[in-house]
Design a protein that fits this description.
Number of helices of chain C: 15
Radius of gyration of chain A: 22 Å
Organism (chain C): Roseibium hamelinense
Distance between the termini of chain C: 24 Å
Strand content of chain A: 15-25%
CATH architecture of the largest domain in chain A: 3-Layer(aba) Sandwich
Helix content of chain C: over 70%
Protein name (chain C): Nucleoside ABC transporter membrane protein
InterPro entries (chain C): ABC_transp_permease
Number of strands of chain A: 12
CATH architecture of one domain in chain C: Orthogonal Bundle
Shape of chain C: globular
Oligomer: heterotrimer
Chains: A alpha/beta, B alpha/beta, C mainly alpha
Shape of chain A: globular
Keywords (chain C): Cell membrane, Membrane, Transmembrane, Transmembrane helix
Strand order of the largest sheet of chain A: 2-1-3-4-5-11
Membrane topology (chain C): Multi-pass membrane protein
Largest interface: A-C, 44 and 46 residues
Chain lengths: 332, 510, 368
Amino acid sequence: MLILRTFASVFIAVAVFSAAPAQAEPAIVYSVGGKFDGSFNESAYQGVQQYTQETGNSVREFELERDAQSRQALRNFASRGYEPVVAIGFNQANAVAAAASEFPETSFVIVDMVVEAPNVASYVFKESEGAYLGGVLAAMASESGTVGFVGGMDIPIIRRFLCGYVQGVKSVGQETEVLFNMAGDTPAAFTDPARGGELARSQAQSGADVIIQAAGGTGIGVLQTAADTGVLGIGTDSNQNGLHPGQVLTSIRKRVDRAVYDSFIAFDQGTFKPGLNVLGVKEGGMDWVLDDNNRDLITSQMQQAANAALSGISTGELVVEDLAADGSCPVS
Amino acid sequence: MNGTPAIELRKINKRFGPVHANRNIDLVVKKGSIHGIIGENGAGKSTLMSILYGFYHADDGDIVINGNKVSIPDSKSAISLGIGMVHQHFMLVDNFSVLENVILGAEGGARLAGGVDKARQELRRLEEEYELRVDPDAIVQDLPVGLQQRVEILKALFRGADILILDEPTGVLTPAEADHLFKILEVLRDEGKTVLLITHKLREIMAITDTVSVMRRGEMVATRETSQTSMSELAELMVGRSVLLRVEKEQAQPSDTVLAIENLTVTDSRGVQVVKDVSFEVRAGEIVGIAGVSGNGQSELLETLAGIRRATSGTLRIGGQVIDLADRIIDPAEMRQLSMGHVPEDRHRMGLVTSFPEYENAILGYHHDPEYSNGVFLDLAAIKKTAQTEIERYDIRPPNPLLKTANFSGGNQQKIVLAREIERDPQVLLVGQPTRGVDIGAIEFIHKRLIEMRDAAKGVLLVSVELDEIRGLSDRILVMFDGRIVGERGPDASEGELGLLMAGVEGEAS
Amino acid sequence: MNAGQLPRWVDFGLIPLLNLTAAFLVSGLVVLIIGENPIEVVQVLLWGALGFGEGVGFTLFYATNFIFTGLAVAVAFHAGLFNIGGEGQAYIGGLGVAFACLALDQVVPWWVTMPFAIVGAALAGAAWAFIPAWLQATRGSHIVITTIMFNFIAASLMVYLLVNVIGEAGSMQPETRTFEDGGRLPFLNDFIPFADFGTAPVNLSLVLGLIACFGVWLLIWRTRLGYEIRSFGANPTAAVYAGISPVRTIVVTMLISGGLAGMMAMNEIMGSQHRLLIEFVTGYGFVGIAVALMGRAHPIGIVLAAVLFGMLYQGGAELSFEIPTITRDMIVVIQGLVILFAGALEHMFRPALVQFFTMRRLNAAQTG
């Protein structure tokens, strides 16, 4: 009897939850890193915040605990009338494709991966172009002729970033040496500041005096150690100049926030367009940050060089090579 | 002596789950006396002493020390009440010196140096007062067992013990060492200390105590002035019926050799030779006993013959096969194939898997016999039938093969092992400490079975530290000391003679 | 003092229930502190896990993973070995599944691929357990240390293989191509009429898992090998005395354990993801330890514990979806509390219960 009653009340409870929002409200599904990962998801979260502050609308959020939940979460949002439904991270691509075909009337957005469907807008970034800018600034700031790179997990996306960085460095001077390390082979490689610090320290001891991080949470340790040992760090994804004012050369931003914000606004204004959006330097999807925290570190010469590269890439005069099909970098 | 008893226990009760280990125990121990507590294993002696020393807490009842009612929540409070304990297994740090061990836990402050000097003086005083001579700077692991025990006693006295509890103190000692211990205990008593001696050996009780209390199945059944009682009365009180202390047997009729060992040498994991060039043989129809103080290589000898331990060199002759042990590793399964049964010295550690139901232990080591297999599967029906038969034949109680082995008493567990090994009808039976921790009733039964084996023209090799058992059962007695066989005697050799051999005093020449 | 003194229903029913209740009570306190109604939370959790077809489907899908990893840990437990390498063994097991599927999916139907994938998963998982087992058996290197080290080696190896060797060329994602139909197990929806598990990927692997449970039960309690494993686990000295080779027992047990862990990849790779990708194990191997502990290393207990953890996973996801203040970190706290009470504090209620039942028995004996 008791069990029956419990179940009855459970199902009554369900009826309450299934209520849809009165008006179309956007929803976002963060990837497994969580929205405070200090990097990619957090950048998306900043876009959400910008949107809610400016419009006063609310956004439903969900953080994946494991990838298997993705499709369920996307379906849940779509079936309850949330729109657009934004999925952060390439791991959700299959789930987005499945949900999009199941809910053809609902608009979906995927960031960092391409899903070809009539109701999906895909945003991808040319990380290597941003990395190129970082490479130019690093090479110019370096006095020792050696710069460093600390990556997170050894996967293609990080290697691509490294490849762009190396091209930027070499564009300043062929003789500048690039030290690089990956923090590991598990996702923990993106959440291990101690390991990041260790790698940064060893690179600094080997002569690197500017070190870029492409390692999420691990990168926080890279910047910390760089500041502690008196070398310069370069932040990524979001603006990290303020973490150690005067000791972070610049930050190479990946404007996930902009992708998220734009898609929300576009939907509200009825201008939402499915299809592929490639965000590079030209589109403002990748940029470098100059603010009060690093103004003293950037000489006018450096600023000119970086801006020259930026405009060169934008006009197409300068091409940052991507990884070759076999995953190798054309420049090393 | 004044009239206040040193210890008075009133209506002490202690339960472990369904086991009522101590039931309404009353005990009065006079100041300045040696008081023996005797009982079979599992009678509740150790539990009672643990309550007195603060390891366990009694469910109810009172403890009165020197006329004051006290509570003893831990060993620290026991020590502060002047109670000291010498455990059966010494609680010493092997690589510390005697002095360091004695002050361990009583260092008296953070600075060690001052305490050490004072401790050294105190130790010297104690040594002289009680004839407990030990070199304070010797490392404990270098000392013989008898001396290690003295360190334990010193430790207790150093902490100001007036009441000294000794738990089975002679189990590891040679007869001579035991005699010396008794002398020390007498000195302690004469100096006004109170000694509580826990033992299951009647002889010791008769030799040294002033008063003796007998425990049986968790109850205190009697207290006697030692001078007013006899061994047979005490044995009867322990068991609850009259028992035969001697083994009845006919003259042996030995025939062919069934087991022969030549020049066997065994080195242990530390690289120490524990069995040195041992040769002997066992014939069908005889029991060969190996006497010796525990730790002189008997255990290793037995384990090597059973195939558990690897020999360095030597030859083994059994069942028409000659095996060069330096060449070839033998394993226990192979030895069983060669018709050797083995009742190991320590049934808990080796002879049984106590978490198994009884029937699973009935085939331990024989589980590959076709009789019990059905392809890769076990033939449970056949196994249970065997177990049931053995239970009936060996009067194992409770007669339930499904019961967990740990829930059988020590004597019944030993019967399970014995039944398993004897019922496979081996030509050679190795038996180690067959009656250790077994109640007197079961001892009688086990001894009878071993004699039956012998009379059925099997060879039995018996290792025991109980000299009475060796003398009672064996047709020939070999004495081991320091890894060697130092002498062979007939069954009527006197205890004194064997004791000297066991102590390594007299070589084969005598 | 020991398990034999409690009625079986207490040991296998009441104690787990009490532990679970305690875990939920403490979780309830945490929920209260963050200002939500615990009753409502429990309702949503139960509804999310069991209240509708898809929820049940996901619960069973997760449970399938836990059945395999739980069995793997349990088999090793019986030999006294603590295999915490299920994570890595399952990961490498994925390699075996993927090789079979990549080789066969375009030429034969799934039911031809399946036996190869099973053998591949089991062999790969077993191979990964072999080295730690061998080191433990012959060198005494502690298996807890070596298996956990092998988890990291597995992670590195898989990233290397997926990025450099078998990954799809030109893809940013470290994963193989997606299998064709010949490399996909049917979903339960597809072959059980009237079943409605929605989009839940619960698949034929669940049946495989249940068969594995029966197999483990047979192995442990009915075969001579199982007898040797249990003897060795309960008392290694007695096992040596009985002529049971420690080296052989350790190695064989670990091979079986690793093989079972490897078979978890059937569910994830051939049953659900249909491609080999990095980090698909994500902790199932570790939770398998809790499942085995809570299930008392018995297959039936493991199935029940696996379903419970499946419910926590699925119900937890719904919970954080329906009540956004219950973040996914809160869900992890609740799962952690269940593991804590079911595993680490397993003996918390036992002494009191032993006393209670002893008293009752004594009273009954006196009055009866």
